[in-house]
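Input chain follows. Return structure tokens only.
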Amino acid sequence: MLRIAVLDDFQSAAAEFADWSRLPEEAEVVSFADHVDDEDAVADRLAGFDVVVAMRERTPFPRSLLERLPELRLLVTTGARNAAIDVAAAADLGVPVCGTGAHPTGTVELTWALVLAVARHVPEEDAGLRAGGWQRTVGTDLAGATLGVVGLGRLGTRVARIGQAFGMDVVAWSQNLTAERATEAGVRRVERDDLFATADVVTVHLVLSDRTRGLVGRDELARMKPSAILVNTSRGPIVDEAALLRALSEGRIAGAGIDVYDREPLPADSPLRRSPRTVLTPHLGYVTRDTYRVFYGDAVEDVAAFLRGEPVRVIAPA
């Protein structure tokens, strides 16, 4: 029997959003709705499985883990890349790593949900109203304000367009962004220091790498206006979490909307859970019905194609 493990299926959504019956009748699909951190526990859980479907970067697959899974024949990750998988080690062990398509709008939409929730104090006002109160805060206008987009790629460009629709002045910076590329997107390129010093809303849309890890740190946060908002729907380690906590606790920025964290799921004792002026979501950027249809539907097709001996979407080692 072919055994397939679907990891970190927190909402038990894999069965709803893909037709697993397309696989051979002898295939057994086991979905795990909880997350396991310890490598020994992961190795024990996956012992005897031929195929693993991993959801984004929720469970790391370093060489040390892959070497403990001798029966593994195929590793599928949702999305086109997964920084938590040692693709080179998998290749050395003869295990192809496949990706899936994606649906790009979910993270963009959540970015604006967080911007608006922080700017208009939505969670606080909702809680106050339910407790019998009325109008406790004063919101911040977006029209006429400056939006600073850190990373003007596929997602950052979409975020910028929505900012323009709100009537915001949009500026952008990334290490490789040119003035010409910014102009094509209808925004102005500025230097990094200028972006953090002038933006009323700073939103991060970069790929996590050695170059971007900790890019938004103490100095960048210190340059921000006391009235400014930071939003991160990209990857947690791009923003220095300790520096952000200090800036929030000391009131040096007005607030933050955070969807991604250094460690996920966010530990129950994380100080971020108690931090003032924050709106926190549990990495929901890509968690939409249309995205899950693409992720899990393509994962099923990857497994089916692999079993038929047909080409699959193999991720090449970096």
